[in-house]
Amino acid sequence: MNDLAVRELAYSCMKERGFKWPEPVKIKIGEMAPSPMNARRYGVIEGLEVRKWGYHLPSGPESDSLGHKESEKEVKPDARAIEAYTGRAPDEDMSDESTSSTKGCLGQAQRDVFGEREEDSKWTELLKYHSRSFLDASRDASVIDAMARWRTCMKGSGCKYADIWGANNDPRWQVSEVSVSEISTAINDVRCKTESRVPAVLLSVETELQSNYIRHNAADFSKIKYNLGKVYEHSLDVVGTRRAG
After folding, report:
1. Looking at the predicted structure, is the pLDDT value of residue 33 above 70?
2. pLDDT in tens, 58-76
């Protein structure tokens, strides 16, 4: 919902500035599903999905990965529109998040939804714990053992990777087309994850770690919960107003 509110506000900003920009897909609020933020936290795990998409993110029949309607994909933003949206010149390095612009429509929308200052929403604090539990879990003995089982399983299929991320981030998959080799590797990846129980072990360890974080930092998480609740309420207002307009 928060991401949709950001896209809605950014789209309105672009319209006000006179730029053409793909409109966010129309979804009824009552029918909206939760954002799959952690869908691939442990890499690919869905057998049916990888048989078609490999390691690529699936594209729905009605919208693309950015939530743009299929019928409006003909809207191709030019360099000036992209600069207005991001607030950065087309040739500017966008890999460094610390250079995030406050001039573009996207930055304005993010500040509107999440707060004038990042810490106001407590989102960065939540992400800190979110990342910490993943890193701590990866060092756990049971996870290391499960990863070794996955590695042995993959080697038996002719795929040599140090861990699940070596397979997931293989440079060969960083192209637009899904290759036969990618699909084959992804299928073996999912099978070996099931046999080695990597996702299940990771989830178990992370759940315990996160429960401990919450128990030992109750005051912090109480503030995080309150502030994110306010952000969500504001996002509902934003999306509801846009739908009614």
Report:
1. no
2. 864 444 444 444 444 466 7
Mean pLDDT of the chain: 80
CA distance 65 to 59: 6
The SS3 call for residue 63 is strand
Cβ-contact 130, 214 below 8 angstroms: no
pLDDT mean over 26-51: 71
pTM for this model (two decimals): 0.61
Q: Counting beta carbons within 10 angstroms of the beta carbon of residue 138, is it exposed (0 to 12), middle (13 to 18) or buried (19 or more)?
A: middle
What residue spans of the chain are helical by DSSP H? 2-16, 47-53, 79-86, 105-114, 123-138, 141-156, 164-168, 180-196, 198-216, 218-244
Which residues, in sequence order, are CB contacts of 216 under 8 Å at separation 6+? none
Residue 241 CB neighbour total at 10 angstroms: 12
